[in-house]
Specification:
Layout: E1 27-29, E2 32-33, H1 36-44, H2 63-70, H3 72-85, E3 92-94, H4 99-112, H5 125-129, E4 130-136, H6 144-152, H7 156-164, H8 166-170, H9 178-186, H10 200-204, H11 231-236, E5 251-253, H12 255-259, H13 295-305, E6 307-308, H14 310-320, H15 322-328, E7 366-373, E8 375-385, E9 395-397, E10 410-411, E11 414-419, H16 425-435, E12 448-455, H17 480-490, H18 495-498, H19 507-513
Length: about 525
């Protein structure tokens, strides 16, 4: 499954390709559905292979490289054109999930851009061919979970497993060196860099501030479609904490650093550190992670910087994984555009960043952001240096870091916030709640946007399987309310006819706190 570390494409002599057709992602494994429930329900209202198309793609590659190697974007364009032409001119409803949301953002820019870098469809292609884009669990602004994955090949689930069974992940069982192999593989996938948080401190906060400041997990949720929440309601929800969580500190070395006033943290600059004596030896070559080229001095410098917000995250990743980030920065960008008319934004590396691109000129096209809420979702991490040993990843989540009570957002070294267990509400909802709402510089034609949140309710018993009211990132694909919303739009309904916004979280309140010129 690894790709070539220099090119991000096929390694010599190995070709792995995506399956095509509806079977590409109906089930992940026997009995474990992904798209199967939705496909079956769409079939009930008359959809079949000639009117329903699964756009499978190699999710390891950078988005532009799926076109370079497999012509995937061209195939999508042709398939949509044929479906619209053979169905009386009825426009297509697009349903991307997870990374597919970013991939389709890239497609909408690619399809209208001139050849050879684009599809040459012209400036009105989306307006002519797309009725609605129904984004499910979209990480529009990235996910902090991606940072933990790239930094130490772990996230909350791996860290907890390590705490429960340290022998398995900290010892070389059968010389597998599990996490090192995971890191070696995933760092060859350019697509993982599409998930790095976008928008910097403006969106995610800095060392002393974040939009979600003051959040506590509330036990009960009421549907709230107001775009303004008054202070009284916030107090009633119990959103006051003895210690306000500093979510803007995405990586902190030590719980004390995560909680301290920023002026009290003594930090040593890591960017100019000499990486020093290599920790590598010849036995490490088969588990290459780039940490072996950092040396003890480089590793020590990273830990002594102590705390990283989104402002220093990219520099950190460039320091610990220079080869990976050099490849990735040719395909992805993470900033906020000051002037969207600047010709530089015609380059494909900006196309999947909604803060550096305009939506297509398609005033009748509707955009939905559909995602689960009510599940603790990774937002920031407490790290520690791992025991030094050859071939080891030198940093790991400190699972001994816990909050002071059950209501705390800190558990097993991970600070959580509201979301679908993978994508925080802020990333899934902000664009449709504020940056694209109405005519803005990011949405100049004023395409209508809708937030549809689904409050998580776990299965009542074993017989319900993964449940029919789940808000979890993948299990939401079997959520009856979400499926009904999609079926109604696929049968011709508009967002207004669905009832407009359906909101349980504080997405509108948090969006108001973000000072982004629109």
């Amino acid at each position: 499954m690894s790709l070539d570390n220099e090119t991000g494409l096929d390694p010599p002599g190995i070709r792995v390709r995506p399956v095509s057709g509806l079977v590409a992602a109906d089930y992940f494994a026997p009995g474990y559905f992904v798209w199967a429930v939705l496909i079956a329900n769409l079939a009930h209202i008359g959809y079949e292979e000639k009117t329903m198309y699964m756009a499978s793609y190699d999710w390891r590659l950078s988005f532009q490289n799926t076109e370079v190697r497999d012509q995937t974007l061209s195939r999508m364009k042709t398939n949509i054109e044929v479906m619209v032409a053979t169905n009386g001119g009825n426009k297509a409803v697009i349903i991307p999930h997870s990374m597919g949301v970013l991939y389709f953002l890239h497609f909408m820019k690619w399809v209208e851009a001139p050849a050879p870098l684009g599809g040459g469809g012209g400036p009105d292609w989306c307006a002519k061919h797309i009725k609605a884009v129904m984004n499910i669990g979209g990480p529009f602004l990235g996910v902090p979970k991606a940072v933990a994955g790239l930094f130490s090949a772990e996230a909350r689930d791996i860290a907890v497993a390590r705490a429960i069974a340290p022998v398995f992940l900290d010892k070389d069982i059968f010389s597998l060196q599990t996490l090192q192999h995971v890191m070696r593989m995933s760092r060859t996938w350019d697509s993982t860099m599409s998930m790095i948080p976008r928008g910097g401190a403006t969106i995610w906060g800095d060392l002393d501030w974040s939009p979600e400041e003051g959040y506590t997990p509330s036990k009960r949720r009421q549907r709230n479609n107001d775009t303004k929440n008054d202070i009284q309601e916030v107090i009633e929800n119990g959103i006051s904490q003895k210690k306000s969580v500093k979510y803007g500190r995405i990586i902190s070395f030590g719980k004390d650093v995560a909680e301290a006033q920023s002026s009290h943290i003594e930090r040593i600059e890591f960017r100019d550190a000499v990486k020093g004596r290599s920790v590598a030896n010849s036995t490490c070559r088969d588990v290459w992670t780039e940490y072996h080229e950092m040396g003890y001095e480089g590793i020590k410098a990273v830990a002594e910087h102590k705390v990283y917000g989104t402002g220093s995250l990219l520099d950190l990743l460039h320091f610990v994984a220079p080869k990976m980030m050099e490849r990735g920065s040719a395909h992805f960008s993470y900033g906020i555009a000051e002037n969207l008319d600047d010709p530089k934004y015609n380059h494909y590396k900006y196309w999947s960043n909604p803060l550096e691109t305009k939506l297509p000129n398609a005033p009748e096209m509707e955009i939905f952001s559909m995602y689960g809420v009510g599940i603790p979702t990774e937002r920031a991490y407490v790290y520690k240096l791992s025991p030094s040993a050859e071939c080891y990843i030198p940093f790991q989540i400190d699972t001994s870091a816990d909050g002071e009570d059950e209501e705390s957002c800190l558990k097993d070294g991970v600070y959580t916030v509201d979301g679908d267990e993978t994508v925080p509400v802020l990333s899934a909802g902000f664009m449709c709640a504020k940056a694209w709402r109405g005519k803005t510089r990011f949405n100049p034609s004023g395409s209508r946007t809708y937030i549809r949140e689904y409050n998580h309710s776990p299965p009542a018993n074993f017989l319900e399987g993964r449940g029919t009211q789940s808000g979890a990132h993948v299990d939401i694909m079997g959520n009856f309310a979400l499926i009904e919303d999609i079926m109604r739009v696929a049968a011709g309904a508009t967002g207004e006819e669905l009832g407009g916004d359906q909101v349980y979280s504080d997405i509108f309140k948090w969006s108001e706190k973000i000072n982004l010129p629109l």
